[in-house]
Automatic annotation (TrEMBL):
Pfam families: ATP-grasp (PF02222), PurK_C (PF17769), RS_preATP-grasp-like (PF22660)
Protein name as catalogued: N5-carboxyaminoimidazole ribonucleotide synthase
HAMAP family associated with the record: PurK
Reactions mediated catalytically: 5-amino-1-(5-phospho-beta-D-ribosyl)imidazole + hydrogencarbonate + ATP = 5-carboxyamino-1-(5-phospho-D-ribosyl)imidazole + ADP + phosphate + 2 H(+)
Similarity section: Belongs to the PurK/PurT family.
Any GO CC annotation of this UniProt entry: cytosol
InterPro entries, per database record: ATP-grasp (IPR011761), ATP-grasp_carboxylate-amine (IPR003135), ATP_grasp_subdomain_1 (IPR013815), PreATP-grasp_dom_sf (IPR016185), PurK (IPR005875), PurK_C (IPR040686), PurT/PurK_preATP-grasp (IPR054350), Rudment_hybrid_motif (IPR011054)
Role of this protein: Catalyzes the ATP-dependent conversion of 5-aminoimidazole ribonucleotide (AIR) and HCO(3)(-) to N5-carboxyaminoimidazole ribonucleotide (N5-CAIR).
Molecular-function GO term, any one: metal ion binding
Organism for this UniProt entry: Marinococcus luteus
Keywords: ATP-binding, Ligase, Nucleotide-binding, Purine biosynthesis
Assembly notes: Homodimer.
Taxonomy, superkingdom: Bacteria
């Protein structure tokens, strides 16, 4: 049985980004203190923490400081090297453990774990040499996607092969010639991208949030629409998959499961993230319990909250190139729910905040989101 954290105890968050910030916002009303470890001060999470530890994620001295400061540790991103994660698990109370991190941060291990749970993924082939890539292209065909096994997100670390002749250049671009591990995946002709966020507590209680329909622009999540415009079968299948994966990996905390849906309603898992997720930000206003509060409840040993949808909702990401238009016309955007993360530099493509629109009717929420976006962003 996991421990129960009492109000007044300190939750340590590894990572100082917006997910850590929103975890802290959820933890504070419940009476917890928050400590954040991040390589620089004044991070989005550090701004709202009680304790801010400036240290690299693999700095053992920083980990020791964190151990002194907090009673339970969680993380807001998965790319922590396995040795550091094991050290943290041995040094602090990390109810999520290090094994799921080890799996989720490596695409090949991730796919093997999903397959082991009897869940569909796109056909794939490990690539460690030009010869293996050539064989993989012959087996899988084109179009296909060559990806790095580590470190890719928001479309980074991947190249689409539209013809077999593209393989050599893609191999070089992704660092295959320098010994990077790669994986070639078949292209799935999907009609929709959806995600389902599942939470499981230290006591084994499990809950899922409503399935979200995700729209990407330039490989970055643009909008999440809930309820997703999918068949009842796909909705139930997505929830079944999320529950199955949570059980299979012995989840503690939060797991976001991103999926492709084809024209014949076949569902493939694309990837997973063992933490709260961008596509779950809508839960802050639209659900009875947010993904962040649910995560805090799970790692602190509290009962999970109800996760039902209160109203149809559209969540839209605010990137660096959108910030000026949002802040210049805040009186319009703030008629709905604006979240800005306190990041120091608004770079193009960088997630700076999100905007949430709730309405009694889903189409009204979609129309409101579209109208404001066209007026101020696409003008």
């Amino acid at each position: 049985m996991g421990r129960v954290m009492k109000p007044g105890q300190t939750i340590g968050i590894l990572g100082g980004g917006q997910l850590g910030r929103m975890m802290a916002f959820a933890a504070k009303p419940m009476g917890y203190r928050v400590a954040v470890l991040e390589p620089k001060t004044d991070s989005p999470a550090g701004q709202v923490a009680d304790v801010e530890i400036e240290a690299a994620y693999d700095d053992r001295a920083g980990a020791d400081k964190m151990a002194e400061a907090c009673d339970v540790l969680t993380y807001e991103f998965e790319n922590i090297d396995a040795e550091t994660a094991r050290h943290l698990e041995n040094t602090l109370y990390l109810p999520q453990g290090s094994q799921l991190l080890h799996t989720a941060q490596h695409r090949l291990r991730e796919k093997q774990a999903i397959e082991a749970a009897n869940i569909k993924v796109a056909p794939y082939h490990q690539v460690t040499s030009r010869e293996e890539l050539s064989a993989a292209v012959k087996q899988i065909g084109v179009p296909s996607v060559l990806k790095t096994c580590r470190g890719g997100y928001d479309g980074k670390g991947q190249v689409v092969l539209k013809a077999a002749e593209d393989a050599e250049a893609a191999f070089e671009t992704l660092g295959g010639s320098d010994g990077k591990e790669l994986v070639l995946e078949a292209w799935i002709p999907f009609q929709k991208e959806v995600s389902c966020i599942v939470t499981r507590s230290v006591h084994g209680e499990t809950g899922v949030f409503p399935v979200g329909e995700n729209i990407h622009v330039n490989n970055v999540l643009h909008q999440t629409i809930v309820p997703a415009r999918i068949s009842r079968f796909v909705n139930e299948e997505a929830i079944r998959i999320a529950h199955r994966l949570a059980e299979h990996v012995d989840l503690v905390g939060t797991l976001a499961v991103e999926m492709f849906v084809t024209e014949d309603d076949t569902v493939y898992v694309n990837e997973v993230a063992p933490r709260p997720h961008n596509s779950g930000h809508y839960t802050i206003e639209a659900c009875e319990t947010s993904q962040f509060e649910q995560h805090i409840r799970a790692v602190c040993g509290l009962p999970l909250g109800p996760a039902g949808l209160k109203q149809p909702v559209v969540m839209t990401n605010i990137l660096g190139e959108h910030v000026e238009a949002v802040t210049a016309h805040m009186e319009e955007w703030s008629k709905d729910h604006v979240h800005l993360y306190g990041k120091d530099e608004a770079k193009p493509g960088r997630k700076m905040g999100h905007w949430t629109v709730l309405r009694e009717d889903l189409q009204d929420a979609i129309d409101r989101s579209s109208d404001v976006w066209k007026q101020y962003i696409e003008k």
